[in-house]
Amino acid sequence: MNRKNGETKVRSSDPVSVHDEIKAIIKKEDRFLITTHVRPDGDSLASVLVFAGLLDAFRKSCRICIDDGVPRKYDFLPGIERVKSFDDLPDSSGIGTAVVLDASGLERTGRIGDRIPETARIVNIDHHEGNSRFGEVNCILTGSSSTAEIVYDLYRRCDLPLTPEVARLVYTGIVCDTGCFRFANTGAQTLETAAEMVRAGADPGKIIHDLQNRHSAHTLQALGHALTRIRFFLDDAVVGMHLTCQDLKQFPEADTEGFVNYLRMIEGPSVQFFINEVQPGRHRVSLRSHEKDVNQIAGRLGGGGHARAAGCDITGNLEQVQDRILGCLSAVFKAGRAD
Ligand code: AMP
Ligand code: MN
Ligand code: MN
Hints:
The protein is of the alpha/beta class. It is built from twelve helices and twelve strands.
């Protein structure tokens, strides 16, 4: 089958039946691969580790493989040493089921997707609206704050005891994707799940400390540099900033994840963007909005994400990249389609 346009056998609208289907697969399958999107974040890493814990409880073997390194700030996550890189997957022929978490399309797994044997079943668990439903089983719950919350729901439905490790992972996934409960995806259920995790042993202060207070000075200096570049566009409806490869040479290993969120603090603009040149001519773009649908905009630029937080990769020089983003935004603003 064409993985990228996989038929949907199970709709996401019924979490109970899709969870039952995944449970049945876990019981009958023995050889799992667990993966997630490139440039993994706290939600994707927490999700793969909770799913691995679930398989451990069923005494099933699994390999966790991601086509990118794990950022240092996530090294405190219990079990993180189990996450291997692409090069540690020389032979994938024995895989019976691949579980893909927090990825809106199989291509988001980078080279891992191509390594999944044609004969293997794909279980796709995610919370992105634009998920292409590339699995044989698709558990897509767009109302969930995070994929970690979905995986925990599955864990709970399997009647497994909630361990402090799982609680810490789920709490981390939730705080990472909700920006510490600040974003619009924070609902009553999110807070209830978070409270349950705290009761089970997740220490909120320590998790936030581990995530946020272990940066190098270079990360803050890179942020300071980016902030000096703040510019307004399209009659102040859009605010953006950028960092080039050249800039980043001054700040080795600066972690730029989340820089875009600082732009959200500025009153007025409805869309925020941050352009990060990851390699000469290759730009990672983060888009945010308080009320516009930036997923739609990122989609037009070859990326995706959520309504209020999306991203894409664009090649070219900075001016070209900026022009493409602004061209797209201005067309969508004029058509009044992005609200
Ligand atoms: P970021 O700006 O990297 O924090 O990403 C925001 C959201 O957009 C996350 O849900 C990402 O998974 C998603 N996203 C980022 N880049 C892409 C891309 N190139 N294609 C699809 N989704 C993306
Ligand atoms: Mn993610
Ligand atoms: Mn997520």
